[in-house]
Design a protein that fits this description.
Length: 385
């Protein structure tokens, strides 16, 4: 116990003296969630700038343009004489989409013919495309319904309703009622921040030790002669700190930016314990393979973006090649991100995510074993065995 307390105190003292480590394990976990959340405060894309090429110049074409401009999703910035001129506005980023109305637009609609409106969108941003397409689709459907009713002449109100909407859909957005990008992206990113900052903080600390003690990850001190006090002495420095930061994320950040919080806080606590332990032991294991603290920063920062892709958040895991699905499972963040989303966004219990929860405990046990092996080998080396 004395050795454990000594190692814990020594680790705390080392961390407090190193501003670089403090930035990664205190400032970044507190500041990054706020930064990401502020960026996506609007949740959905609004007022996507669009250019118009109106070859019809008719009453119905002007009505169509006015209705599209009246939606919250699209803002018409101007009318151009041809598509080539309108395309120049996209190249200059004045607009992200073009609406081209054909010359026969009104004639076709008045005579019951099908007409085609050209929609050109800058596909470098799928969010702009989605907002633009939905706005134009809604407007065209409403105009189609109005024209159908005009053709039918004198009908009852009920007949008009059936004519307009023969099939009525009841639309319900589950787990993301605002259909917002922040509610989709921020929850898993919070869990990734925990893993990556732990990797950076522990990696920098172990890099300092290697440089100071000629490649050894433990000091030349008689207190560092047993594996368990070393592993738990270090783990107990980071676990309470990150537990508080995780609670801060799920309470202050979620409430401040109105992110989905359907889960039970007790379930979250049960979930975050194995996740934090798995991340800590994983960080110790991985950091032992890197010699210098500068290399640690380069490698672990580079890993952040692939972790998002591999987690299945930005792209479904079912659509990934089998190798990459299995490869992603070695990282605690994959289970952590998916488990957290299901708890806080969908309101799942531990029983509902049993596979993920068991997987985190398996990772905790495995990486605890590898962390012990790292320190055992260093103790043997230090003692000349």
């Amino acid at each position: 116990m004395k050795n454990l307390l000594y190692i814990w105190y020594d680790e705390v003292r080392t961390v407090l003296r190193d501003k670089g480590i403090l930035i990664f394990i205190v400032f970044v976990p507190l500041a990054y969630p706020l930064l990401y959340s502020y960026v996506y405060t609007n949740e959905v894309c609004r007022d996507v700038p669009a250019a118009v090429v109106d070859d019809s110049k008719s009453t119905l074409s002007r009505e169509f343009i006015s209705n599209v401009d009246g939606t919250p999703d699209v803002k018409i910035i101007g009318t151009f004489s041809n598509v080539k001129d309108a395309e120049q506005s996209i190249k200059e980023h004045d607009a992200y989409a073009i609406i081209q109305i054909p010359e026969s637009f009104e004639y076709d609609l008045r005579h019951g013919n099908q007409t085609k409106v050209g929609l050109y969108c800058d596909m470098s941003s799928m969010l702009y495309y989605k907002a633009f397409l939905l706005a134009c689709t809604d407007v065209s459907l409403n105009m189609n319904n109005d024209i159908k009713v005009e053709r039918l002449g004198s009908i009852t109100t009920r007949d008009e309703e059936i004519t307009k909407m023969p099939i009525l859909y009841e639309h319900k957005s589950m787990y993301n009622p605002q259909q917002g990008f922040a509610a989709f992206l921020i929850p898993p990113i919070l869990m990734l921040i925990i893993q990556q900052t732990l990797l950076l903080g522990i990696g920098m600390e172990m890099g300092n030790t290697r440089e100071k003690y000629m490649g050894s990850v433990i000091p030349f001190d008689f207190h560092y002669k047993r594996v368990m006090p070393i592993v738990w002495g270090k783990a107990l420095v980071y676990f309470p700190l990150y537990f508080v930061e995780a609670v801060y994320m799920v309470t202050f950040v979620n409430r401040s930016f109105r992110l989905p919080t359907m889960g039970d806080y007790g379930t979250f606590v049960l979930f975050i314990i194995p996740y934090l332990l798995a991340c800590i032991f994983f960080a110790i294991t991985l950091s032992s393979l890197i010699y210098r603290r500068e290399d640690c920063i380069l490698i672990f920062v580079f890993m952040s973006v692939p972790m998002v892709f591999l987690s299945g958040v930005s792209w479904p895991r079912s659509a990934m090649p089998q190798f990459w699905r299995y490869f992603s499972d070695i990282f605690p963040s994959t289970l952590g991100m998916n488990g957290y989303v299901r708890i806080m966004t969908m309101g799942c219990s531990i029983h509902d995510i049993a596979n993920i929860y068991i997987g985190l405990w398996i990772q905790t046990a495995f990486y605890f074993g590898t962390a012990c092996l790292v320190y055992f080998k260093n103790i043997q080396k230090m003692m000349g065995k």
